Structure formats: structure tokens, C-alpha cells
Amino acid sequence: MIRNIETKDLQRVCEIYNHFVLTTHASFETEPVPVEEMQRRMRDYTSDYPWLIYEENSEVIGFCYASKWRPRPAYRFTAEVTIYLDKGHLSKGIGMESGSCRTGDWRAIGKKCCNRIEDVELVRCT
After folding, report:
1. Which of 21, 49, 72, 96 could join 101 via S-S bond, C-beta 3.0 to 4.6 A?
2. Is the pTM of this model over 0.70?
3. Which of 1, 15, 5, 9 is nearest to 88 (CA)?
4. Sheet with 79-85: strands ordered across
């Protein structure tokens, strides 16, 4: 099930995210992110874009959010979409199942994330 994030999800979001902070370079962070910081990010990001939770059997196994790409005015219609999944649920097609990579779904997701624009061009899913 995909739903909007709630404050109660932040501890689990940090667990998922901090695994990648500590074991990969994907986040470009070097220290684990505490719940308080994640709450600030949630508040900041959700003021303009959705932050979605993916759960199965009432367990949060991933999250997806959009954020501003750059602060300059010419980038005002550009957003970065980020997806993190629990380490035990990687390579199972969840990202694709949740609609992030299926052909034709990019426009719908882009418009949901960036509802103030009329056309969404996305390059590719890697």
C-alpha cells in the first residue's frame, strides 16, 4: 500500500535511510540522520511535494519523496525524486511495482509530485 507519510513513520524511515548512509555513498551523507532532522526534512519537503510511504502488512518497507532540484528560479519546475527501500526488500521489483519505473507512469507521478506544471519530461529510471 502507498500512502502519505505520517510523523509515526519517521523512526522507521530513519532506520531504512541510515542503513544507506552507513553502508553506501548514495545519500552523500556521512553521519546517521536523527529522527528530529528527518522530521524537519519531512516538514520542509511536504510543503511543496508529497512524501510517500510504501508498506506491506502494516510494515513500512520503503519511502519516496520529491524535493526541489536547485534553488535558482529557472529550476522552479524541476524536482528530484528519491526512493529508499529496506535492505531486506531490495531487488524484488517494489520500486517498479509502486509505479516509479513503469512505462507511462512517470508523467502521472511527476504531475502528482509537481502539480503546478503542465508537462513533465523525465529522462529515465536507473
Report:
1. 96
2. yes
3. 15
4. 2-4, 51-56, 59-68, 79-85
Write down all domains in the chain, each with its CATH number in brackets.
2-113 (3.40.630.30)
Write out the three cell numbers for 109. 507521478
pLDDT (tens digit per residue) in 5-26:
999 999 999 999 999 999 999 8
- How would you classify the pairing of strands 2-4 and 59-68? unpaired
Helix (H) or strand (E) holding 84: strand 79-85
Query: How big is the chain by its Cα radius of gyration, in Å?
Result: 14
pLDDT band, residue 70 (cuts 50/70/90)? confident
Cell numbers of 101, please?
519505473
DSSP state, residue 108: H
